[in-house]
Amino acid sequence: MKSILVLYAHPAPRHSKTNKELAKVAQATEGVTFVDLYAQYPRFKINIDKEQEQLLAHDIIIFQFPLMWYSTPSILKEWQDLVLEYGFAYGEGGKALEGKCLFPVVSVGGPETAYGEDGYNNFELRTFLTPLEQTAKLCSMKFLPPLALYSSLRSHKDGRLEDHVAHYAALLSALKNDKFDYKAASARQLLIEGDLPLIGETA
């Protein structure tokens, strides 16, 4: 059984139905350690030793956040700046995270059509997450395709949020129980509802 660490970063969680429901699923899943970074570090005084110990103790690291100005919320960037130290996560002797997985779970306000060369955001969603992908590579980690929810602000009204939450729960279970097909996932740009690659899955 794999151990999972969810680092949740939302500066205003009370205003997010999407991330609130996803957080509930993560907190309720056995084998998942859930950390609300803004609640844990309201003044951004991150305990580096504690965070590094948690990284060492888990196999899969999930960054759960809303895309904000085409990037992660500020505390998640601060966390990376401080916790992923030279000699620990990368560089000479920095092999502490080797073989672990980094997995973004992202919600965005815009529709899928907004992401791409023909959309008003000009680039694919995964392009905006390239810094996380390169961070994983530098730290000798596996990078999993992001689980993404487009038009997240309307998802609770059109019925998509319930399906997305169920998909997240199934994904956490598959990761925890070694039922996730990493090879099949690596060929995908994103993971979306109804697109969960499982070992032994039949058409």
Walk me through what this model shows.
It is a single chain. With 203 residues, this protein is of the alpha/beta class. The protein has one domain (4-186): Rossmann fold, CATH 3.40.50. Helices cover 35% and strands 14% of the residues. It has 8 helices and 6 strands. It has helices spanning 17-28, 37-40, 48-57, 74-83, 125-128, 130-138, 160-176, 182-186, and strands spanning 4-8, 32-36, 60-66, 101-107, 142-143, 147-149. Strands 1, 2, 3, 4, 5 and 6 form a 6-stranded parallel β-sheet that branches. The radius of gyration is 16 Å and the shape is globular. It starts with a strand and ends in a 17-residue tail after the last helix.
In short, what is this structure?
With 203 residues, this protein is of the alpha/beta class.
Main attributes of the structure:
203 residues, alpha/beta, Rossmann fold, 35% helix
Secondary structure blueprint with pairings:
Blueprint: E1 4-8, H1 17-28, E2 32-36, H2 37-40, H3 48-57, E3 60-66, H4 74-83, E4 101-107, H5 125-128, H6 130-138, E5 142-143, E6 147-149, H7 160-176, H8 182-186
Helix pairs in contact: 1-7
